[in-house]
Specification:
By secondary structure, this protein is mainly alpha-helical. It contains 23 helices and four strands. 74% of the residues lie in helices and 2% in strands.
Length: 520
């Protein structure tokens, strides 16, 4: 029996969702005060999902090498689970799990982030039972978004992924945590309202075109898209609803303001998931739903999306440069880097879309590393004020090295994942100038973001880790024991995908190529 048969037979995608969900239930049944048990359950369950995600990536790469991935949108979905076994509303809603190469890459990112996030929260004591349960519930929703092809369950998992953030920030956060949690929830719910309107519009249009055969199944919608969604006005306004709805989560300007506040107030593992994975759901939603079903809508709004994305890149970098709080620097840098994702998707070339999805992966690992570091620095130095720190490399060289790896990836230094992602996005956007004259101007403006990022990252490294060491930090400790897990694993992945990006690019390309045949 091949690995592919084994994974399919044992419903690998269902396990990705069910394992963290079941672990959350198990933790809630464990008596209060058994903190080590909560951690072990969380670590074992997330370790299982990491192994499973790695096996999925390995198997999918083997399918690509064997040329068993068809070059059509209908043929790239693998590991299908129960396409008809669980259906509702006469088959209009199906619990149908399947994924493509881009989904596999995002599952691998999610599994890595939650596994390292558990170890980043290893010393948490306050209401640890509820904390780990909510964290695992959130990640079950994230996995669900990446592996479902039914828009009803896509939205259900999407909400499961978003709503626990309110409690995680409101209870375990710092600073203006109640304000940040409420602001985040209200703005994301506003985006959700636009998304569900778009889903219902697709269902009604398909139902009308097929004389009562409406469905929420993405594959079936794609099969009737040319007839059901042929009206230009329909595509224009439904695509705009998706862009704004998913764009809220992706931090598009000016709907990004919830993100820095949410990042700054969230506890460490929540920040890692928030920036590392949750913000990627916005770009992934456009890739999964809007681009294949509404390509003319993208053509109508392409310039708006590209211009806003370029502004995001530059504005986010400038905002990060002006921050005094270490967490706010990383938060605004995420706004900047997510602009590259949106620009790559809107440019619409193979290179740019590959770069956009690669940026989701590379930036997810990088920000998970950054927020793990910020949490450790805050826990040991008891401040996030950049001006109050200095010379920490003398007492915490491990933290300094890890921060330097993350910072250089943010800058886009060759040999890091950030370089590969940014190179592909900008190269692909410049290539789009052939079919969309003037695109090079927007891309050139966005390149200013790289220069500004270099300035604030290098200045941050100098001010926090080099220079004179204040006497109050003379006895500060470096990372130790379980604290190294998040730092070492994320730093290693940043370097690995920077030096050898081919496997991730192959996964992504297998999903993007069929998409381009629809968009062109």
């Amino acid at each position: 029996m091949s690995l592919h048969d084994l994974l399919t037979q044992y419903a690998a995608l269902a396990w990705l969702v069910l394992v963290p969900f079941s672990a959350a239930l198990v933790i809630m049944l464990i008596p209060r005060g058994w903190h080590l048990t909560y951690r072990l359950v969380a670590a074992v369950s997330t370790g299982f999902t990491l192994i499973l995600a790695a096996l999925l990536a390995w198997d999918y790469l083997a399918l690509i090498q064997a040329e068993k991935i068809p070059g059509t949108f209908q043929g790239i979905w693998h590991y299908a689970f129960a396409p008809q076994a669980m259906s509702f509303m006469g088959g209009k809603i199906t619990f149908h799990l399947a994924t493509d190469g881009a989904g596999v890459a995002m599952c691998l990112l999610t599994a890595l982030t939650i596994f390292t996030g558990v170890f980043a929260s290893w010393t948490l004591q306050e209401r640890a039972k509820e904390y780990y349960a909510l964290l695992l519930l959130l990640v079950a929703g994230v996995f669900g978004v990446f592996v479902t092809v039914d828009l009803f369950f896509f939205f259900l998992f999407y909400e499961i992924a978003v709503l626990p953030m309110y409690l995680l920030i409101g209870i375990w956060g710092t600073g203006q945590k109640e304000y940040s949690a409420m602001k985040l929830t209200l703005m994301l719910l506003m985006g959700s309202a636009l998304i569900i309107v778009g889903f219902l519009a697709l269902f009604v249009a398909a139902d009308k075109a097929t004389m009562g055969g409406g469905t929420f199944n993405l594959l079936q919608l794609a099969a009737v898209a040319k007839e059901a969604f042929a009206d230009a006005q329909f595509q224009r306004w439904v695509f705009l609803a998706f862009y704004l709805g998913f764009g809220v989560l992706a931090g598009i300007f000016p709907l990004h303001t919830w993100s820095p506040d949410g990042h700054a107030s969230a506890p460490t593992a929540t920040s890692m998931l928030h920036a590392g994975v949750l913000m990627k759901l916005g770009g992934f939603g456009l890739l999964r739903v809007a681009l294949p079903l509404l390509p003319e809508g993208l053509a109508d709004w392409r310039w708006l999306i590209v211009i806003v994305a370029a502004w995001n890149i530059v504005y986010g970098a400038f905002s990060a440069m002006g921050q005094k709080d270490l967490k706010y620097v990383v938060a605004y840098s995420s706004v900047s880097h997510l602009g590259m994702v949106m620009m790559g998707l809107a440019a619409g070339t193979l290179t740019s879309i590959n770069g956009a999805v690669f940026q989701m992966f590379a930036h997810g690992v990088m920000t998970a590393l950054f927020f793990a570091l910020v949490g450790l620095v805050y826990g040991k130095a008891h401040t996030r004020d950049i001006d109050a720190m200095g010379g920490l490399a003398r007492v915490a060289p491990g933290l300094a090295v890890a921060f330097m790896i993350g910072g250089l990836s943010s800058v886009g230094l060759p040999g890091t994942g950030g370089f590969v992602a940014e190179f592909l996005v900008f190269m692909g956007t410049f290539q789009a100038n052939v079919s969309h004259p003037g695109m090079w101007i927007v891309a050139a403006f966005a390149c200013l973001g790289i220069v500004i990022t270099s300035i604030y990252v290098l200045r941050l490294l100098k001010r926090v880790f080099f220079g004179a060491l204040p006497p109050k930090y003379a006895h500060m400790e470096d990372a130790k024991t379980t604290e190294w897990v998040a730092l070492a694993m994320n730093a290693a992945v940043i370097l690995a995908v920077g030096i050898w990006p081919k496997p991730i690019i192959e996964l992504i390309t297998s999903a993007v190529m069929p998409l381009l045949t629809i968009m062109q």
